[in-house]
Amino acid sequence: MATIRLFKHYIRVPYLMLGTFEFLILVSSVYAAAHLRYFDHAQNIPLYIGPLLPRALTFGSFMLLSMIAMGLYQSQLREGLPGVVLRLSVSFIVGTVGLSILFYLFPAVFFGRGVLSIALFMSFIGISATRAVFLHAIDENILKRRVLVLGAGERADHFSRLRRRSDQRGFQILGFVHIQGEKDVVDQNRVIKLDRPLVDKCLELEIDEIVVAVNDRRKNFPVHELLDCKLNGIDVVDALTFFERESGKIMLELLSPGWLIFSDGFERGSLRSALERTFDIAISSLILLFVWPLLAITTIAILIEDGFRAPILYRQVRVGEGGKPFQVLKIRSMSVNAEQNGAQWAQKNDSRVTRVGSIIRKLRIDELPQIYNILRGDMSFVGPRPERPEFVTHLSEVIPYYDERHRVKPGLAGWAQLNYPYGSSDKDAAEKLQFDLYYVKNHSLVLDLFIIIQTVEVVLFGKGAR
After folding, report:
1. What CATH superfamily is the domain 145-247?
2. Does residue 345 register a pLDDT over 70?
């Protein structure tokens, strides 16, 4: 499955094509709905509802954004067609609500309840049918890249972790090439011992890409054979780069300082910082405008449960950009004396969480006061979640490269939260660090917008909440 890189974030071409095709379905459905609604007077449609093109583009954009927010363009989506249809239904509900608000604020772009209802029905049927065909094509390896792994040792064995079908949705591994002098670790049934030049084997298997996973490149590394493959149109990539592209994370087990030094990314600059700061202020102010009633309701609920003398907010020291501590502001979701025995991870079904707290933690309402931290400049809207100094000190000692997540400001939403559930152990922290490093390396305003949109899915489906 071919990928392209837009603003340093990998996007799979088939999903980009799928999104484009479904956008066309959404736009076309408005035209079809208008002609069905005014079948006998089609020539008067511009008089009845105005020009169709801007209305159709508005409809298509809102619905497409809601589909992105529901995770419908994630290659790791595992639910199958029933799950896709469920997410599609929710996205249409969210999109319709968004359109209703837009029509209320700007009545001039409204094109009538009849046309809207027909367009929603037609586009839902069309996209559902498109998804059925697309999922069949994906699962039948029609759109997958054919991959050959160079090496069968310990580095190559990391590919054995990709057991689920959703983990290999973008590619198909055809085998592992044995390297002379290297001990094979992967399943022997998948090891290929060459009896001909590497390029001939690749052409025979119709290989699209070779992933280099050799333990020691100083010994028996087939430089000339790889060059021959490259010149014959076969892509050659490093294993770490491959996993970064396919999984959206940087694998710690494969990471080396040399790769960090010579890879692209990790860019900073005064203009970029100014744009990010403007973006943070604009997004935070806009969200605060909509969520203040929710904050007021939450405050009343806490007072009813814990009494009118109970604190609503609490401050907690967290580690920010450059390792500098700051005080994060949150709505209290645990009992007042929850940490009288010291700092500890939140656990599943934690007895310290109040009844109101269990609700606001699932909906992430307890995090909303951090908008104040964003406006102050302690945090960005998107970035790695800030951790407590006690945990950072420990994790920095046991997890390599942990301090590198502090190269950017911490955030209210983050790439790790989208891709990994709530963590309460060193292992979980290491897994989330891999996603944080991906964000630190590749972050941009476009990636931030993508994360913000998909955070809606996290809130609605409760992913990662504890």
Report:
1. NAD(P)-binding Rossmann-like Domain (3.40.50.720)
2. no
